[in-house]
Amino acid sequence: MASDPRAWQAGSNRRCTYVDEAEAEMAEDDPPVRSTRIRLGPQIVASNVSESRVRRYVERAREGCYIANSLRSEILVELTLRSV
Fold it and tell me: With contact defined as beta carbons under 8 Å apart, do 61 and 79 qualify?
């Protein structure tokens, strides 16, 4: 994982890989045209990290996101987590 730019090492024995698949829905029939719903699909592979800790970090990141907090769109986070 170390050569993957999406991977990072947290401590001596913790490793994570993060990829996000995002989608947005646009309301073209209700001007102005805008995104009405955004779905984020983070896929995280982690070793030596508890599932609750990863879920807590994802939730805190969403709550503190300047862009997400600036939008009126509904934002869904559908986390896929795999431990190795």
Answer: no
